[in-house]
Amino acid sequence: MSFQLDDSQGLGTRSGTPFQRFRRLRRTEGLRRLVRETRLSLDDLIYPLFVTYGVGIRREVPSMPGVYQLSVDQLASEAEELATLGIGAVLLFGIPEHKDERASGAYDENGIVQQAVRELKRCAPELVVITDVCNCEYMSHGHCGIVSPTGEILNDPTLELLAKTAVSHVRAGADMVAPSDMMDGRVWAIRQALDAAGFVETPILSYAAKFASAFYGPFRDAAESAPAFGDRRSHQMDPGNQREALREIAADLEEGADAIIIKPALAYLDIVALARQRFDVPIAAYNVSGEYAMVKAAARNGWIDERRVVLELLTGIKRAGAGMIITYHAKDVARWLREETGTTSLARPLAV
Ligand code: PBG
Fold first, then answer.
1. Angle between helices 112-123 and 155-172 (to 10 degrees)
2. Cα of 239 to ligand 1 centre, how many Å?
């Protein structure tokens, strides 16, 4: 028996069943490029930086190959590299020399992040400098807030520290602050404090839906911020909760957030997609340290093709609805995207 194919209407007929020929538009890279719905761009990427005390320090984080703790004197060359690569935004984390139970290093005018912001703004004024606002790196016990004698993380007293920290970052020159502590009311507290200090024009990028995740493990090595006891489940979200994530986002927007972060990214793409439908604000997804470490480990073993896997993962995050992606892969992606556009015919001079 043979098949009768009538394709004149764009439909094929096989045993009387109409079907569509999707493969027509997949035949060549030129066609695929024309119909591609989601494209990664360097404009989407935010690169996290870990700044540490000391001089001449460039210390690789063991669980995050390719990611370094840098001392302030290293930032000028780092900024130059980012500019060459075309990466336009960084998210700063600080590792202070001294930690205490009031997180005083977090809001010290000469704290590590404040110094780093000033240095970056001096050598790369165009670079968008976003600062992570949290207490965990500055507390001797590694918790995100003030801890009561019974071990409880106190919400309202912590707000004041966060607000002071945010103001000091902006005073140092930060373009945007990103509170990641997950205390209730912190966006409101930070907005009030920024406005009172005259920074009405400085935006807040809030980690609105941040889950209590095992994927932060390598970050806590990098930022030296693992809690000495207990965990972060009394303030970060339960991984099972989708509706609550949408309420968290709505609440942060009501409190004055200008843009939001969903974190981690890969196990939470449903939240990204729903947030994209429901809220008309810029959305970032944080492709966190554990997600990075898994890819690096598998790539080092030769088990996956790192470049293709990373580009596929980040495309997935963008396709889900994130317009900004915070990722440790940013520098590699910049090199790969450059190579790719370098080989397309459009990038060649017309005379050739
Ligand atoms: C808190 C903070 C964390 C991350 C970003 N900000 C760690 C935590 O909540 O324990 C994690 C980022 C990552 O894993 O890449 N300051």
1. 30
2. 15
Helix (H) or strand (E) holding 171: helix 155-172
pLDDT above 70: residue 147? yes
CATH class of 39-341: alpha beta
Mean pLDDT, the chain, rounded, equals 93
What's the rounded Cα separation, in Å, for the pair 52 and 93?
A: 9
Q: Which of 99, 263, 296, 318 does the annotation list as catalytic?
A: 263
Domain boundaries, the chain: 39-341
Q: Please name which of 279, 276, 282 lies closest in space to residue 204, comparing C-alpha atoms.
A: 282
Q: How many angstroms is it from 219 CA to the middle of ligand 1?
A: 6
Q: Does residue 263 have an active-site annotation? A: yes
Q: What CA–CA distance (Å, rounded) separates 189 from 159?
A: 6
Q: How far apart are CA 14 and CA 229, in angstroms?
A: 65
Active site residue 318: no
Whether cis (ω within 30° of 0) applies to the bond prior to 179 is: no
Residue 62 φ/ψ, nearest 5 degrees: -55, -40
Q: Of the ranges 136-145, 173-182, 337-346, which one carries the lowest mean pLDDT score?
A: 337-346
Atom in ligand 1 nearest the alpha carbon of residue 93? 16
**pLDDT at 14 (0 to 100):** 55
